[in-house]
Amino acid sequence: MIKIQGLRKSYGGKQALKGVSLELPRGEIVGLFGENGAGKSTLMKCILDFLPYTGSITLDGEKITRKNIAQISFATSEHSFFGNLSAAGHRDFYKEHFPDFSDKRFLSLMDFFELPMNKPIKSFSTGQKNQFEVILALCQGADYILMDEPFAGNDIFNREDFYKVLLGILTERETVILSTHLIEEVADFIGRAVLISHGEIVGDVYTSRLEDEGKTLMSYIKETYHYRADRVSRALGELNNGEV
Q: Which of 9, 34, 76, 114 could connect to 53 by a Cys-Cys bridge, CB 3.0–4.6 Å?
């Protein structure tokens, strides 16, 4: 389990995370939702120990260090691969550095996305680069797979098919934490939704509970964020009145 307690992170005196506490057991698919700047990416980077922070983050009761960091993988649209290296080269590198690297899963996902093995990754399109980033994260052999807006540049058909493939390949030990704005697309894919706003957790619910209550994920999110359904009509009304 990843256990986060009292996590705080500031940038130039501005608090990005304000005492976040969260538990992430194995075997879950968690959607992490929030507006731009809510703290989603910062939270993931703190889990990975990419950023200094105050508070506590542990993995199975131990601080995350070089000794256990391989249990966590990360897919980000910012990209973390070697541009001049081919997919085959990355495969060799990962097999050398990650003993639990899944070669079978790697080859299957490369085939699924129809990605070339021997071209440098820098020659890939944006969508292909993001696909490859996700493949590496899924094949590393990690128990926790963090994905930060991983599907940018991919068409809806690729995304929908990928959700289905992902559900079919994940083991009971693997947890996916997915940060995305594509809420309606992933509503049937995730099992738990964590909502963050202005650096604080404002909602945490299992989708099975929402179903029991007759609610949709989108309605829960709108309710939690106090979404105003009349905001567009009010804005247009004010603009039109101003023109008159």
A: 9
Contact partners, residue 206, CB within 8 Å, separation at least 6: 191, 192, 193
Q: What are the domain boundaries of the chain?
A: 2-243
Measure the CA–CA gap between 180 and 153, rounded to whole angstroms: 13
Nearest CA among 180, 152, 178 for reference residue 36: 180
**What pTM was estimated for this model as a whole?**
0.88
State both tokens at 159. 């995304």
- The CA dihedral of 115, 75, 41, 62, to the nearest 10 degrees, is 180
Does residue 23 sit in helix, strand or coil? strand
pLDDT in tens, 152-166: 667 777 788 888 888
CB environment 40-51: b (16+ within 10 A), e (fewer) = bbbbbbbbbeeb
Q: Are 88 and 136 in contact (CB under 8 A)?
A: no
2-243, which class in CATH? alpha beta
